Each structure stands twice: as structure tokens, then as C-alpha cells.
Amino acid sequence: MASLNRVLLIGNLTRDPEHKVLASGQAVCRLGLAINRQFKNKQNGSMVQEVCFIDVDVWGPQAESCKQYLQKGRPVFIEGRLKYDSWEDQNGQTKTKHSIVADSVQFLSFKGSEIEDIPRTSPDASSTESIMQLNPNNPVERDLLNQLEQAKNKMQAAGKEKTSKKITNNPQPVSTGEIEFPDEPPFEDQLPF
After folding, report:
1. Count of other CB atoms within 10 angstroms of residue 26
2. How far is Cα 158 from Cα 43, in angstroms, rounded to an integer?
3. pLDDT < 50 regions, the chain
4. DSSP 96-152
5. Cβ distance 33 to 53 under 8 Å?
6. Which of 4, 3, 5, 7 is nearest to 104 (CA)?
């Protein structure tokens, strides 16, 4: 019998990450996640805000990253699997709960309490700041900004070189190694509808 256990969640952290290193040397980080759902009540027409709270366990190197970069209120995208835990409390009663074991944690950018849309830009964008908001005081993010700036400069130089080749009066076309297809009218199928 086939089965699938896959969970995709976007939400905000309800507390700072709880980080531990087990006796085996493996790092684990527990995140508290709140996922909001807003819907209209069909009976009275009012908007209802529903919140689901769930714990997420992150293992290995990702746990270290979560400990370093995440804090309460930060939005994250979690991809993982659902896990069912059961245990006995001090009174001998059996307790159960569901949690998530994360395969992937993606840090989302935000302003205040709302997620900021990171614009998708073309490679010839005029500014690296339009791609994402990075902190130049952080050495890792500063290095990333430098790499983005270098890539942008290379692309601009390549673009200038390409336009200068077009300007020259060379009667023979320059072969770029690409296959050129003639322009044709759009495909028209011969179906009766």
C-alpha cells in the first residue's frame, strides 16, 4: 500500500529556537510555529482568525543555522514530515501530540510582522538591493552582496560587448554557435473545436 507523509507550512515563530546537542553529537533545534488562517463565517458574515500552533524539529547543520539566524516572530517556510509522539506524564497518563520533522527550513524576509515579498528580477537588474535585503554588517551576507555585485558587473560588461558587436558594419553575420529558427506563424492544430 502506498503512503505519503509530506507537509508544507509557512508561519511565524512563536518563540526563539531551542537548541540542544545530543550525546551523539547531533544538533537539534525545536521551533514553535504559528500558522494563521483567515476565513469568513457563513452564518454571520464576520471574519474569523484561526491559528494553528505546532512544534518543528530541525536536525543537523540546519539546526545550527536556525539557532544562529532565527528569532521569535520571524516567518519561515518549512518542508518536512508529520510525526506522532506519545509518552506518559508524571501521573501515568498517556499523552500524545503531532509535530513536524523538518527536511528543509527556508528563512523568509519580513518587515515588522508581515512577510515582505522579495521581488524576482531579471539578471540585468539595476541594483542588487532590489533582489533581496541583506545586512552588510554580517560577513556572510556582505560576501554574498560582493558576489552579486561582481556578477552584475560581468553581465553589464557582456551586454556592452554584445551591443558594440551589433554597431560595427560587418556584412557577414557573426556565428554565436546558437541555432537560429525562422519566424513562423503560431502552430494551428487541426482539431474540429
Report:
1. 11
2. 62
3. 113-132, 187, 191, 193
4. EEEEEEEEEEEEPPEETTEEPP-----TT-S-GGGT----TTSHHHHHHHHHHHHHH
5. yes
6. 7
